[in-house]
């Protein structure tokens, strides 16, 4: 990169990190650290949701994945993202918000019991630290591909990036994270638009891309134009495109509920209205950026046909940056990638440390300490969480594409846990059903993982364990087990989340911090909400738009 590129990178990313340290001074209490004092407006939360949802691993791996597998992955960032956000912000998280909970796992103790709360926290820590590993590996690929750094230089810079991110996150908590994310989202959008325009012009535009794809086939004779059409693309197993869409949709549905990096933001909203509008705004920003990133992978079929499935498709994004970006523009794109990494680092670090402190440490290990003590533990836990991401690198490098590594882990624990949250809010399954459903779904997920990755278990049908069937089957197994528990122990005969039920029996820091939260607001307005500001209408429009994108524009 040129000196101008380096100046842009250091000025943009350095300013954001400095701003994070500045904001950290205002964090005084656990309510400030964990939930931003429940004072965060919709537009700041929406930008933060965008920045957290799109990380550097998406930018690097998505282009490579689309190069090999076509456009179907946009389901995760359009239809799945929108439906998951609406489900979380309109149905699931408001229950947690009204209950005064600090974490999504905390709710599960009230609904199902202490063991489920702890297991949920552990599953989320495993789930999101694996995502950290993906981001760390994608930064490594980018530094090698774009900057041509040596391995030692790459890992040194990555460790420094993690240290600086951890520093302002540990000090400032959610307030620092959200507002630095908001700034980083602007840098990310500028970088994403820049490289998309460069690749678009290099490919000759839409008409030229369509023409070249129509005239070419892959090594197996499939027309490359199918890469643009979800309903026509055939993978190596000739999987039904509807099944693939269902699989990605389940991933997206669970993302906003099981993933505390998002529920933490929603629970920090200044009102329920802000919570709902923030998720819709965040999804509206996510869709065009991720569609553009995916399209770059398909354009790569025209521009660089030599990037085959086993020759480094994850190197496609760095290749585009090197080949098609002029000085200055390359620095902006690198700054955007680093901003994406920082925004997700701080989000995962703060969210998972909250889970560790409230749902494991304060609940089981050290129950009667001061707020100062628990905030100190949370800050140290943030550093430990960020370092855990490095442990997943050996597993990730086994796969041809990072998204494949991530996708194979989801059905094991995350999908059963999402099913438990969903049934807990929407039905009156008994408390015992939580543990029964989680054990059944997780055992099924583990056998499926072993069957897919290590040993072919002949007694297990491929229809149950194959990578796309695993998602709906995991939900079905968990649901059936929970309903069976309801037949044995009976359905709940009263609302589990009554005000009385939500009070902790023992007066300690966990209960005191919940009592210190500001009162719940339905809207931030002093007057009745006008119909044109009703989030229900915008949710319906966004869901309809996402359906059209998948089953109309790209089908």
UniProtKB/TrEMBL annotation:
Gene Ontology MF term list: symporter activity
GO cellular component, one term: plasma membrane
NCBIfam families: sss (TIGR00813)
GO biological process: sodium ion transport
Entry keyword annotation includes Cell wall biogenesis/degradation: no
Database matches in Gene3D superfamilies: Sodium/glucose cotransporter
Name by which UniProt lists this protein: Sodium/glucose cotransporter
Domain of life: Bacteria
InterPro entries (alphabetical): Na/Glc_symporter_sf, Na/solute_symporter, Sodium:Solute_Symporter_SSF
Taxonomic source organism: Gimesia aquarii
Annotated family: Belongs to the sodium:solute symporter (SSF) (TC 2.A.21) family.
TM ranges: 6-24, 73-97, 118-143, 155-174, 186-206, 241-258, 278-299, 332-356, 377-397, 409-426, 433-449, 469-492, 537-554
Membrane topology: Multi-pass membrane protein
Keywords: Cell membrane, Ion transport, Membrane, Sodium, Sodium transport, Transmembrane, Transmembrane helix, Transport
């Amino acid at each position: 990169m040129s000196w101008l590129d380096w100046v842009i990178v250091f000025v943009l990313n350095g300013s954001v990190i400095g701003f994070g340290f500045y904001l950290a001074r205002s964090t005084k209490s656990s309510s400030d650290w964990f939930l931003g004092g429940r004072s965060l407006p919709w537009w700041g939360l929406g930008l933060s949701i965008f920045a957290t949802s799109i990380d550097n691993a998406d930018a690097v791996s998505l282009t490579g994945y689309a190069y090999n597998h076509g456009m179907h992955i946009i389901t995760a960032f359009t239809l799945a993202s929108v439906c998951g956000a609406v489900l979380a912000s309109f149905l699931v998280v408001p229950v947690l918000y009204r209950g005064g909970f600090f974490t999504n796992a905390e709710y599960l103790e009230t609904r199902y019991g202490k063991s489920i709360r702890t297991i949920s926290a552990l599953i989320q820590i495993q789930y999101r630290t694996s995502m950290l590993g993906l981001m760390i590996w994608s930064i490594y690929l980018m530094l090698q591909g774009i900057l041509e750094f040596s391995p030692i230089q790459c890992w040194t810079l990555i460790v420094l990036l993690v240290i600086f991110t951890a520093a302002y996150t540990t000090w400032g908590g959610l307030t620092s994270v959200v507002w630095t994310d908001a700034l980083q989202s602007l840098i990310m959008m500028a970088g994403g638009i820049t490289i998309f325009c460069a690749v678009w012009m290099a490919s000759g535009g839409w008409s030229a891309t369509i023409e070249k794809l129509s005239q070419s086939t892959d090594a197996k004779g499939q027309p490359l134009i199918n890469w643009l059409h979800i309903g026509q693309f055939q993978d190596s197993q000739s999987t039904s495109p509807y099944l693939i869409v269902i699989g990605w949709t389940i991933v997206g549905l669970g993302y906003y509920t099981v993933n505390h990096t998002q529920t933490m933001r929603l629970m920090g909203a200044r009102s329920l209205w802000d919570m709902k509008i923030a998720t819709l705004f965040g999804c509206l920003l996510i869709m065009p950026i991720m569609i553009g990133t995916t399209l770059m992978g398909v354009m790569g079929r025209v521009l660089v046909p030599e990037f085959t499935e086993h020759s480094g498709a994850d190197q496609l994004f760095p290749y585009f940056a090197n080949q098609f970006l002029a000085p200055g523009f390359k620095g902006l794109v690198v700054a955007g990638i680093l901003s994406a990494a920082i925004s997700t680092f701080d989000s995962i670090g703060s969210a998972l440390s909250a889970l560790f402190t409230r749902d494991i440490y304060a609940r089981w290990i050290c129950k009667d300490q001061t707020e100062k003590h628990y905030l100190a533990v949370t800050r140290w836990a943030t550093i430990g969480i960020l370092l855990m991401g490095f442990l997943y690198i050996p597993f990730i490098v086994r796969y041809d594409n990072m998204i494949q590594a991530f996708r194979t882990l989801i059905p094991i624990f995350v999908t059963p846990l999402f099913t438990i949250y969903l049934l807990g809010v929407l039905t009156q399954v008994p408390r015992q059903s939580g543990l029964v459903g989680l054990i059944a779904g997780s055992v099924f997920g583990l056998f499926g993982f072993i069957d897919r990755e290590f040993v072919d278990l002949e007694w297990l049908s491929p229809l149950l364990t194959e990578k796309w069937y695993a998602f709906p089957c995991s939900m079905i197994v968990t649901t059936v087990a929970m309903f069976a528990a309801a037949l044995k122990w009976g359905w709940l005969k009263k609302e589990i989340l009554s005000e009385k039920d939500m009070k902790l029996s023992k007066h300690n820091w966990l209960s005191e911090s919940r009592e210190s939260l500001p009162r719940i607001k339905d809207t931030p307005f002093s007057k009745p909400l006008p119909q044109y500001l009703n989030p229900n209408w915008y949710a319906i429009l966004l869901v309809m738009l996402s359906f059209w994108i998948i089953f109309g524009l790209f089908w």
